[in-house]
Amino acid sequence: MKNKLSPLVLNSNKASSTHVFFVVNPITVIITRMIIDKFKLNKNKILVISIRNTDLSILDFNSLYIIPNRINNLYDKLFFSSSVGKKVLKKLKGSQFIIYASWATRELHFLMNSINYKGHYYIEEGQGSYMNHIPFSYTKVSLKDKLKNNFKNRVNEDDSSGYFYRDDSLGFIGISNKAFPKINESKKIILNNLNSLKVYYKPKLIGIKTIGLTCAERRLEDNNWRKMLKTIVDKLPENSAIKAHPSFTFSQKRFNKLKKMLEEISNKNIRLLENDVILELEMLYEKKKFIGPQTSVSIYAEFFDSTFENLKLY
Can you give the pTM of this predicted structure? Predict the structure, then answer.
């Protein structure tokens, strides 16, 4: 990390402010841990919000696991509200706070309206962080577009709206110089303390060199889990593993269903990985080969000197 950038975070590390991290996948878990360590944030002033049941094993801090239900989601979409944001504010109990999020989500917009909000950063989260998104001015967005973006609360890989990052953030934090390609260098913070994470994470896949990856459930037109698994299994050798997309693992019931299906399909020694396996950290210990659809893992496989083979699943 360039020294000239360090004050960007350090100046915001006020004793009165709680650092609120929204983690949505393993990469955001990694970035969160690195930020906390790099800037020696007060462990009593940290709140981690796990979305989609993201595992927090290496983030032993005050935390909330939140999986919004359908009724809350519908209400939030219609009334510019956020059930997640309300739970965060309740947990904060009136404390001032700084937000770390992956993009301009409904939760971020909602929390920015609080009198205790003191600023926000964007943190690297995968593919989206490597796309040519240019920050936008929220005040210049039409009501129609505000309604549309509030309703979907997601920016897909092929999204052309440009509403990914607000232009009023404090900065952008990542682990690669290639992240946030359209962001001015003066607002980017590139962390360099990856190896320090070995203190918190012990490898679970030593000796397992090949790992298959599922796509997101929404990608499957016929919602055919079995067909997807069969395609992956056919490409994997003995003594390999499969890592499922969070859409298959945010509940134990869904994970168990996928695991049982894999056991029925495969006669090879192939295991379905639990949520606490972080592929990016496994590569700190041993090079891997990944086989799956286009995903952020392809970016990090190159970053960690491993390999990635594309597999069409949808």
Answer: 0.90
CA 118/CA 151 separation, integer angstroms: 25
Per the CB < 8 A criterion, the answer to whether 32 and 57 are in contact is no
CA 93 from centroid of its chain's CA atoms: 26
According to the model, what pLDDT value does residue 155 have?
Answer: 55
Cα–Cα distance, 86 to 92 (Å, whole number) = 10
* CB-based contact 226:266 (threshold 8 Å): no
Residues with Cβ within 8 Å of residue 109, at least 6 apart in sequence: 80, 82, 138, 150
Question: How confident is the model over 232-256, as pLDDT tens digits?
Answer: 999 999 999 999 998 998 889 999 9
Number of C-beta neighbours around residue 148 at 10 A = 13
Separation of alpha carbons 262 and 49, rounded Å: 31
- Mapping DSSP onto H, E and C, the string for the chain reads CCHHHHHHHHCCCCCCEEEEEEECCHHHHHHHHHHHHHCCCCHHHEEEEEECCCCCCCCCCCEEEECCCHHHHHHHHHHCCCHHHHHHHHHHCCCEEEEEECCCCHHHHHHCCCCCEEEEEEECCCHHHHCCCCCECHHHCCHHHHHHHHHHCCCCCCCCCCCCCECCCCEEEECCCCCCCCCCHHHEEECCCHHHHHHCCCCCCCCCCEEEECCCHHHCCCCCHHHHHHHHHHHCCCCEEEECCHHHCCCHHHHHHHHHHHHHHCCCCEEECCCCCCHHHHCCCCCCEEEECCCHHHHHHHHCCCEEEECCCC
